[in-house]
């Protein structure tokens, strides 16, 4: 299987490399020997990934570093919390580290978002390397420097933009990825299809006909997704404008996650339902976006989602804490047509309610 190499240019001086392919993790020691002192590395790792791959990661890190500080992250969205962040920070500071001590984040979106914020906030910033192990983290959360914790008032409301020094997306990790995690990650690929590359819909629908495995076809979908995300992020690193297109489905999805209670609904499941709502809103405005495109994937999510919160008032209230809210108005990412997103300040609450009703009805 081939390797893919994608550069992310975040400014004239700063860029980092995303390496995608099988056994890419083996390249970590050589990368580290060029950038960091061999004294110590902090490894923030998902507890299940630790159980499955600890020996391998230990060998790779031990190849260059004299000491490894392991910090395990309990599974689930609940770990994106201030209390988990504090626990990590206490351990790291009590151990004693230096500003140059790198932090390796090994796991999915939750681990990466938490570890990213730990790296951003420790000693005002220590080097960060992402080693995503889930589809979602490979195609989305490890790229672009968003870090975040959830707050009782809303999703990802605590965080910082903090770019990694490198991303090692080793598709070999996907061999141990559960089916439901593939489905969760696929939501972000479906998002790229909707906002940038509609051909991906058919490729993905084809891929879902067989049990997913990290073969050449999936590696291509991953690298196409990373390229789309990279292109958008490079133009607008701090989300002052078009980066918000990457939030398609998320304004609705984050509200679902919050109202369902963090951890009760996977991020990708909520985003999938959110994309159906956003597409329906677009259709109500006359845009030609028939959601027949989502149909092949609906049974996958339907099987996974037990129930969605149905209190539309609570969902709209939750949307008001979205980070894109401006002048008290929810900003929706909608589609003019497939592949063509835009932002609309939402002043029509009846269309919003109708969009929620439509989306929720798809899952009952
Ligand atoms: O990188 C981005 O920008 C995104 O919006 C990507 C999203 O898919 C991702 O889930 C992100 O974490 C959501 O960010 P938020 O700013 O809405 O919390």
TrEMBL record:
Keyword Zinc: yes
GO molecular function: 3-dehydroquinate synthase activity; metal ion binding; nucleotide binding
Residues forming coiled coils: none
GO CC aspect terms: cytoplasm
Domain 3-dehydroquinate synthase C-terminal: start-end pairs: 185-325
Catalytic activity: 7-phospho-2-dehydro-3-deoxy-D-arabino-heptonate = 3-dehydroquinate + phosphate
Names of the cofactor(s): Zn(2+); NAD(+); Co(2+)
EC number: 4.2.3.4
Location of the 3-dehydroquinate synthase N-terminal domain: 72-182
Pathway(s) of this molecule: Metabolic intermediate biosynthesis; chorismate biosynthesis; chorismate from D-erythrose 4-phosphate and phosphoenolpyruvate: step 2/7
Transmembrane portions of the chain: none
Location of this chain's protein in the cell: Cytoplasm
Any Pfam family hit: DHQS_C
GO biological process: amino acid biosynthetic process; aromatic amino acid family biosynthetic process; chorismate biosynthetic process
Keyword field: Amino-acid biosynthesis, Aromatic amino acid biosynthesis, Cobalt, Cytoplasm, Lyase, Metal-binding, NAD, Nucleotide-binding, Zinc
UniProt xrefs under SUPFAM superfamilies: Dehydroquinate synthase-like
Protein family per UniProt: Belongs to the sugar phosphate cyclases superfamily. Dehydroquinate synthase family.
Functional note: Catalyzes the conversion of 3-deoxy-D-arabino-heptulosonate 7-phosphate (DAHP) to dehydroquinate (DHQ).
Protein name listed in UniProt: 3-dehydroquinate synthase
């Amino acid at each position: 299987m081939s390797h893919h190499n994608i550069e992310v240019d975040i400014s004239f001086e700063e860029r980092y490399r995303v390496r995608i392919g099988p056994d890419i993790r083996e390249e970590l020691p050589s990368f580290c020997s060029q950038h960091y002192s061999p004294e110590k590395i902090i490894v923030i790792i998902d507890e299940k990934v630790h159980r499955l791959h600890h020996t391998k990661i230990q060998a790779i890190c031990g190849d260059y570093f004299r000491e490894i500080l392991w910090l395990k992250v309990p599974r689930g969205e609940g770990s994106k919390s201030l209390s988990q962040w504090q626990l990590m920070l206490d351990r790291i500071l009590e151990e004693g580290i230096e500003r140059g001590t790198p932090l390796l984040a090994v796991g999915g979106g939750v681990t990466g978002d938490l570890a990213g914020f730990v790296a951003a906030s420790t000693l005002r910033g220590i080097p960060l390397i992402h080693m995503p192990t889930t589809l979602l983290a490979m195609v989305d959360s490890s790229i672009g420097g968003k870090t975040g914790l959830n707050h009782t008032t809303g999703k990802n409301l605590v965080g910082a933009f903090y770019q990694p020094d490198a991303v090692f997306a080793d598709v070999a990790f996907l061999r141990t990825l559960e089916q439901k995690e593939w489905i969760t990650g696929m939501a972000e690929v479906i998002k790229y299809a909707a906002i940038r590359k509609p051909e991906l819909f058919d490729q993905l629908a084809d891929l879902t006909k067989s049990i997913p495995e990290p073969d050449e076809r999936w590696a291509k979908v991953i690298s196409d997704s990373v390229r789309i995300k990279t292109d958008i992020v490079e133009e607008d690193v701090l989300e002052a404008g078009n980066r918000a297109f990457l939030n398609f489905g998320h304004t609705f999805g984050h509200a679902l996650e919050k109202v369902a209670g963090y951890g009760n609904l996977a991020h990708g499941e909520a985003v999938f339902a959110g994309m159906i709502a956003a597409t329906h809103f677009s259709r109500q405005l006359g845009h030609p976006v028939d959601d027949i495109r989502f149909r092949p994937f609906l049974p996958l999510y339907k099987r996974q989602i037990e129930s969605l919160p149905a209190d539309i008032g609570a969902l709209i209230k939750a949307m008001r804490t979205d980070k894109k809210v401006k002048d008290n108005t929810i900003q929706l990412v909608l589609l003019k047509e497939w592949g063509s997103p835009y932002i609309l300040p939402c002043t029509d609450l009846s269309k919003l309610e109708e969009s929620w009703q439509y989306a929720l009805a798809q899952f009952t």
